[in-house]
# Entry
Amino acid sequence: MSIRFSGTLKRSAGVASAIAKQTRLLNLKPVKNIVVKFDPFNKNVKETREFLFSLTGSKVLTTNISCKIKTNILCDRSQPSITFTLSNNEVIVFKSANLTNLELLQLYNKHITPLASTEEPETIVPQTKSEKKARKKR
Amino acid sequence: MSLADLCEKPIEVQPRNEDVENPYERILAREVLNWFNHSRLVAFFHSNPISAEDRFRTNIMLKKQNMYLKQYGKKVMRMALEDTKYEPVLTLFVSRNFMVFSPELQVGKLLKLNRRIPQLILMAAIVDDRFMSVNELVKYSNMPDLKTAQAGLVAVLNAAAVQLTQNLTHHQQTLLGHLQKHIELQQKMSNEEEA
# Structure
């Protein structure tokens, strides 16, 4: 006679933990070059600056040491944007005027982070003692 | 609260109590305003994550150039700069910021430092009470100093008169030149004869 359960079992832990989760998932491996453009006097720049802050954390940077992050400060009150140049020479542009930090991170993790996992990981098979001996004999 | 009240009345959200004033914040605000009033150059940087070691190194680099690196929160800045002439600066104070104060004016060195420290990104600066963006700072650093500019102006003003005298005395000057060369040649020949 009771109605079927509807609703959530777990409660959301807030925006900060959502941002932390997305930041943990960030992987810069597929990206060759990042250019963040913003005008500091534009009103819509807060989230872009926060996103830039998330992108340049030490743990995120270690996922790809060869990725270059450049920031262009504009002086013409134009809208902020973030341009990712991938290692396969594709260019992805995020126009971040009306996006929040969390949305930017989610978009990145939706479109660019999956490209990192398609690269096959190098499997190092450890050599056994007999194999090493055989090698030495040669 | 009766059951009827609990069911029908919406829960009133208690507003955050920000009325409690912190005297340390007021001291910091006074310090910030003091820095603003006594420095010719105030630079505003956006800060990416920077380790304490890198921050220490940056501090040393700047102190050698007589520049001082400071970081204050939004609340303290608002307390310090509201209702003063520095109010437009508050629009920059979104996300993390650093400030560099200097009693001397060295815009070229500031731009070089901006390139050397990757975690700090220069956004704007106050130069001698003038709020400038990055483009304007670059233009300012490329301009010659006042004396050179004044010398240039004097040269331009005298240009017409100088041109006139040159045109008038052109033939006499060439004659003078030829005569001097002739004298030199003759002296050379006489020296060779003696030797």
